[in-house]
Amino acid sequence: MNEQSVPLPASGAARPAARALPDRLADWLPKIVLAPTVVITLVAVYGYMIWTALLSLTNSRILPVWKFIGTEQYTKLFANERWDVAVGNLVLFGGLFILTCLVIGVLMAILLDQKIRAEGALRTIYLYPMAISFIVTGTAWKWLLNPGLGLEKTIREWGFESFSFDWLVNPDMVIYCLVIAAVWQSSGFVMAMFLAGLRGVDQDMVKAAQLDGASMPKIYRRIILPSLKPVFFSAFVILSHIAIKSFDLVMALTGGGPGYASDLPATFMYQHAFTRGQMGLGAASAIVMLGGVLAILVPYLYSELRGKKHG
Amino acid sequence: MVKSQQTLNQRLLRYGLYAILGVAALVYLMPLWVMLLTSLKDVEEIRSGTLFSLPGSLNFDAWAKAWSGACTGSTCEGIAPFFGNSFKIVIPAVAISTLIGALNGYVLSMWRFRGSELLFGAMLVGCFIPFQVILLPMARMLAMLGLANTVTGLVAVHITYGIAFTTLFFRNFYVGLPKELIAAARLDGAGFFFIFRRIVLPLSTPIIVVCVIWQFTQIWNDFLFGVVFSGGDTQPVTVALNNLVNTSFGGKEYNVDMAAALMAALPTLVVYVLAGKYFVRGLTAGAVKG
Known about the structure:
The complex is a heterodimer.
Chain A: H1 21-55, H2 72-79, H3 81-112, H4 119-127, H5 134-144, H6 151-157, H7 174-199, H8 203-211, H9 216-227, H10 229-245, H11 248-253, H12 265-275, H13 279-310
Chain B: H1 8-39, H2 43-48, H3 61-68, H4 80-110, H5 116-128, H6 132-144, H7 151-175, H8 179-187, H9 192-200, H10 205-221, H11 224-229, H12 237-246, H13 254-274, H14 276-287
Helix pairs in contact in B: 1-13, 3-13, 4-7, 4-10, 4-12, 5-7, 7-10, 10-13, 10-14, 12-13
């Protein structure tokens, strides 16, 4: 906003009234270049959002039917036991996933920030899962967590005969399988964010505290971690965004099962809108998801923008 | 700290630190290692051994079957055709979305006009919406345009929802370029595209690399758009892999599953290993927008 573009030389006051066509075209060129994206965004982001919102007010099943029935689909949605399970799962999965990633991320970043010799190689190893598709992650962990042949059998053969690990087929525990796989995939990324944050901490303040005789744990608690608050905030927003959008991982690792014990809103929406012919209900669930994302995002963007104006 | 000051205690702490980091590295590597081992075993070895037991001999049968013989839903041609589909989708989608992003970023940083910041903000929303909210209308639109279940349709979808990110990358990069450079060229009468081609683009290599890697990873790894908007023979490799793993004809062949999963992961892993620095930069730039 404060970076005003340089005025075009062509727009000076002393120029003839009738401007050559190429000049006028040149003035319009930036807008013309941007126009396709603006149109695409208007249609495919905002237009589609409105379309879905309207659809959620109809009783469409397999095909869109524009017969409006008010908020009946939302009433049905909130009374739907399966949606209840999906939302409960998201809260549990999201909460554990975010918390574990943040804890692992901070700890590993602090450990890696101690002038470690092979830091580059270690960082590469911690972060590589982030380059892989959630479908591959789900496939790999589905095999590792396989009750008959996976880790369970391996640990039994190592001598722990009574070891039992059947979370993948246990409706009460299956959601933790999603947490394990998702943490494996994303915690390295959180670590990288915190590491970048640690490198930006004011070293003079740390040195001053050391001269005052403060112990390292105290310095971390009082100076370094508080200064990482923005990183915590960003990581929280990104991780909750990943959690709400989680779809691939569920499809590959559990398929939402056993039964619908590991459904999340994203899989609920997909199943109702595309395979069960409940388009209106699916649209309503999508709009509720959008509401959830906005509830997290709007305060974040607001504080970011405010911070910028003040800083 | 001078070396001679190091006490025994500090040295032990140091060893402990390396031990923790080393164990953590093993934990992160374990799934990849197990996948590789499993893919090289035969079904009998999988049944009798543990996850970590080594295969008796190097046996690439599972890889061959995953590539060209395994069943992925209705067909049994392995994942090779779908691997090809993914490339057919990724290459044009990455190229076009990067080009559009570069031009948009150039306009939004160096040719601002009244309301351009507002438009930029409005575009950014595209980075954050849960895609569930656009799936149904997009499916209708593709059907209306005759692009349902086509590679072209998927390319269009990936471009549509990729340009918000690519624009963000380039705009934030160009804002950091010295203003004088462009101002001087404009005073000399250089036009919009001339400045872009001759001055801005040659300076853009790092951000082009970041953007291409980001888009490549995103689109290669996509599953949601693939499963919703593609049909039988136009599916990307992620959808085929999921079908392969969840198709149950007779006994499960975990070795074939793992070989197929490794193949699907290989392109993005190679990019990551070759250009990890840029990958991380894209992650943070795409995630923590400035």
